Amino acid sequence: xxxxxxxxxxxxxxxxxxxxxxxxxxxxxxxxxxxxxxxxxxxxxxxxxxxxxxxxxxxxxxxxxxxxxxxxxxxxxxxxxxxxxxxxxxxxxxxxxxxxxxxxxxxxxxxxxxxxxxxxxxxxxxxxxxxxxxxxxxxxxxxxxxxxxxxxxxxxxxxxxxxxxxxxxxxxxxxxxxxxxxxxxxxxxxxxxxxxxxxxxxxxxxxxxxxxxxxxxxxxxxxxxxxxxxxxxxxxxxxxxxxxxxxxxxxxxxxxxxxxxxxxxxxxxxxxxxxxxxxxxxxxxxxxxxxxxxxxxxxxxxxxxxxxxxxxxxxxxxxxxxxxxxxxxxxxxxxxxxxxxxxxxxxxxxxxxxxxxxxxxxxxxxxxxxxxxxxxxxxxxxxxxxxxxxxxxxxxxxxxxxxxxxxxxxxxxxxxxxxxxxxxxxxxx
Length: 429
What we know:
By secondary structure, this protein is an alpha/beta fold. Helix content is 20%, strand content 27%. It is built from eleven helices and 31 strands. Strands 1, 4, 5, 6, 8, 9, 10, 11 and 12 form a nine-stranded mixed β-sheet that branches. The longest helix is centred in the middle third of the chain and has 12 residues, at 233-244. The relative contact order is 0.12.
């Protein structure tokens, strides 16, 4: 695996995850209470002994850069590196990244310096655990120019992916990016070719690209230099390559979730608290998910009732009720609060009187959740200040709303309180 270089794409402006991406890059969004999205592909690489890792960033990348620098020390992972390559303008490339392939193309001059045989292209906003060693082994055994990680999917999800057809050897013979209607129907295949059972094949008759690509070194360099007009892997490079090159499919029939939308991100986080047997678990000693070491104190719970929830370290919870929720680091929840089906991202720092006696007689709303507040079906971004007797319930079932001046948005019926926002005492949403 020393001959593989990983390139993690930091994504575009993250409009589907807005407002969580208002002040941060998409891969820097918090996940599961203490991690960030970028920790998933980086950890998968480290666990697969791929230790040469570049992360390409462009939008709101300051917090992402800081997280990577503080989390992944070269000396911790032998002779590897995790380095950020931020978008920049030059006389030769006066524009920002125009797509996934263009992002890699603009840094090809650095990537070519690495003494490797393959380039592994990954996305920074997927939730899954994968051993890339099996992926690379399959690529080398088939002599593939390009290998795609693929997932069998049903009709409901199929139109959201690039779909393909394969022959008996696993070679991709047709590729269609997010087809709909009759074009979608034409991409149905017998997925027993991938090893699925007959029952599985009936419910999942499509082969979807996961956006994970493994290229031979020379093939990627040639494609990016000889076809400079092609800016995107999924829409241009891969479909065109399938016509002339040996493009192979590698089956990954396990949990994988694209968490690029508010709704999918929200439900993926809450699913982490599911018991027993969550679809994705951080509790795997053979393949841990790494993140920044913060040396926080343990969480203090004072007469709380907590069920089916994740409580991160460094919190103080006072006489509250929490169910089916994820509570982030340094969260402070005062007495009388009820938190249901919600994601609290916590705080970046402690206030000087973090463990103070909770009361509502003060001049400024502190970071955290004030006494007797009720929160349901919501995302509370970092450092938010929720006053006393606040109700975040969306009882009118509003699906979409933009109330930035008031400190919140509603996306797919989910209330999102903005980072650093303040909701005064008695606010009702």
